[in-house]
Design brief:
- The protein starts with a helix and ends with a helix.
- It has a single domain, classed as MFS general substrate transporter like domains (Growth Hormone, Chain: A, Up-down Bundle).
- The chain is built from 22 helices and no strands.
- It is globular and about 65 Å long.
- With 463 residues, the chain is an all-alpha fold.
- The longest helix has 45 residues.
- Helices cover 82% and strands 0% of the residues.
């Protein structure tokens, strides 16, 4: 059996020799990666924002407001455990058939589910059927975003010039904050409606209107081709038959390292952008518009900070930039809550803008590229999707739920929440520090396996 070296080992050397795309191609690639990512996350965060503001009343009414809110957050958290399945399913298609076709499927699924959410009947209209239908739509969203993220990232990463991979990899990452920016801005607008109108039909408008953005995203992506790396792999016949099996067999150490790195890439985001809504409006009695406007401002600053951090990582290194962001974000968790406790509107803006727009961007800007460099082309889509979505399930979607439970269990104290986040930061720091040795170990082991297979093919016996 003849086994090519690229089939079993990371292909960083090939990527370094790859020619830079033309300026026109680069713009199309970055726009395609950014637009689809932003639209997917817009749809995704519409739900998260609505879960904090309205779904507890419309779909999970109980005599205990805290219980209703936790049930609403459960639907946010549960779908994070669906995302790994979506990641594996669509990554299999992406590693076998291609990145582009997969991205069209995921964007269509996400858009359809979002529009349907805007048309669902409430608990008061159809009873328990309402939350069941809502959860079904959320599951579809989870499957779609599980496959979309990896494809959007690879569309940029695998088209990037060797010395600009950090910046290219940060572009789809900024789609998350752009999507959140659009989602919170949309809810900030409809929140200006009288409360009765907002609860009756106003909250539905952003969900229904999202269909326009989906069509725009599909139109932009229609003109893109496959990534050069995947085209080369397909021409060489270097396509994995069962990518998930190969990842778990040959790259499980990299998967664990990536999950550890993801822990603090995602948890602070959901604290700064989702949990803060219910905490500031419920526990601290800030107005809803103040908190949403603060998140909008933080997302705006974060979008540019992510791109800047990605560019800086090309100069200072991915791991160094990532570690700086993790340490800075972990150190800010206590000041974040202290600022909110001041009780002034300006303090909410300062807390959210620093957290979301200053200390966190270096973490997310570099994580996608850092992750992509852990896996070879033939299983890269599966490797990054599985790692990222499992990490999101364990530390992302659960963060608002855990924080809400801690707040209730410890008498309204935020200290356990801050300690929990600092613990996640330590996990990510250790993961980043051991990543190079893990990659070297896997490369050596796979190289020895290739040599052994070639020896067997030549002599009939293993050397």
């Amino acid at each position: 059996m003849t086994v090519s070296n690229s089939k079993s080992t990371p292909d960083t050397a090939n990527a370094l020799r790859a020619p830079a795309p033309s300026r026109v191609t680069a713009r199309r690639v970055l726009l395609g990666s950014l637009s689809g990512s932003a639209i997917e996350w817009f749809d995704f965060f519409l739900y998260a924002t609505a879960a904090a503001l309205i779904f507890d009343k419309q779909f999970f009414p109980t005599n205990d407001p805290a219980l209703s809110l936790m049930l609403s957050y459960v639907t946010v958290s549960l779908t994070f455990f669906i995302r790994p399945f979506g990641g594996v399913l669509f990554a299999h298609i992406g590693d076998r058939v291609g990145r582009k076709k997969t991205l069209v499927i995921t964007l269509s699924l996400m858009g359809g589910a979002t529009v349907v959410i805007g048309l669902l009947p409430t608990y008061g209209q159809v009873g328990v059927l309402a939350p069941i239908l809502l959860l079904a739509c959320r599951v579809i969203q989870g499957l779609a975003i599980g496959g979309e993220w990896g494809g959007a990232l690879l569309l940029a990463f695998e088209n990037a010039p060797a010395r600009r991979r950090g910046f290219y990899g940060s572009v789809p990452q900024s789609g998350a904050t752009i999507g959140m920016l659009l989602a919170t801005a949309a809810f900030a607008v409809v929140s200006q409606l009288p409360m009765g109108a907002f609860e009756a039909w106003g909250w539905r408008l952003p969900f229904i209107a999202s269909i326009v953005l989906v069509f725009v995203g599909l139109w932009i992506r229609n003109g893109l081709g496959e990534t050069p790396a995947f085209q080369d792999a397909k021409k060489a016949g270097d396509v994995a038959k069962l990518p998930i099996a190969e990842v778990l067999r040959d790259h499980w150490r990299s998967v664990l390292v990536a999950i550890g790195g993801k822990a603090f890439e995602v948890a602070p985001f959901y604290i700064f952008a989702t949990f803060v809504v219910s905490y500031a409006t419920g526990t601290l009695d800030f107005s809803r518009s103040t908190v949403l406007n603060a998140i909008t401002a933080g997302a705006f600053v974060s979008t540019f900070a992510i791109l800047l951090s990605g560019a800086l990582s090309d100069r200072f290194g991915r791991r160094r930039t990532f570690l700086f962001g993790v340490i800075a974000t972990g150190a800010f968790m206590v000041p974040f809550f202290l600022l909110l406790d001041i009780g002034m509107d300006w303090a909410v803006y300062v807390a959210v803008i620093i957290g979301l727009g200053v200390v966190w961007p270096p973490v997310t800007a570099t994580f996608g590229t850092f992750l992509s460099e852990l896996f070879p082309t033939r299983v890269r889509y599966t490797g990054i999707s599985l790692s990222s979505q499992v990490g999101s399930a364990l530390a992302g979607g659960t963060a608002p739920l855990i924080a809400t439970w801690m707040l209730s269990a410890f008498g309204g104290s935020w200290t356990p929440i801050a300690a929990y986040l600092v613990g996640l930061a330590l996990i990510s720091i250790v993961s980043a520090l051991i990543a190079p040795s893990v990659t070297r170990r896997e490369t050596r082991r796979l190289t020895h396996r290739v040599a052994g297979d070639r020896s067997t093919d030549a002599t009939g016996t293993r050397a």
